[in-house]
Give the backbone structure.
Amino acid sequence: MAEIYPRELIVDETLPNSEQFTVTAVDGRVGRGIRARIHFERGKRVAKFAGMLSNTVFQHSLQISPATHLHDPYFVGLLSHSCAPNCVLDMQRLEILALLDIGPGELLTIDYAVTEDTLYRQFPCDCGSSHCRRWITGRREAVNEAGKAYLTDLNGKLPRARRSAR
Ligand SMILES: [Zn+2]
């Protein structure tokens, strides 16, 4: 068994380890992700997490308060986004909670807009959820120019609604 975090960040023996999770490549598109290796029950704690406090948004940071971010490039900062996630973060207790039953091999996902006012980088989403927002922003920012262009292009590719005959 190996710890996921480097030794200097391990302040607590309840932090995640390699019997519970694997850090994995995710279809080459979103980089790395975290996969469960064991079963986690809906509503229960999946893991505690740690990191370095910062006043800056990093690619792998999560927001604790408007001016405080937790930078964790080892574990929680690697969680994948989904518009219909199986996990949610408690940024006060620094815990991941299961929204659904999670089985071995499943990718842990969160909705980035739940914790982040502004993302390090907005990005397109194709998570497969029927509620997929297609372009992901923080909860307090507008879709940027790249996102507007992406969404316009995407709408152009959808089949046109048939006009009613007069
Ligand atoms: Zn989505």
In short: The longest strand covers residues 21-25.
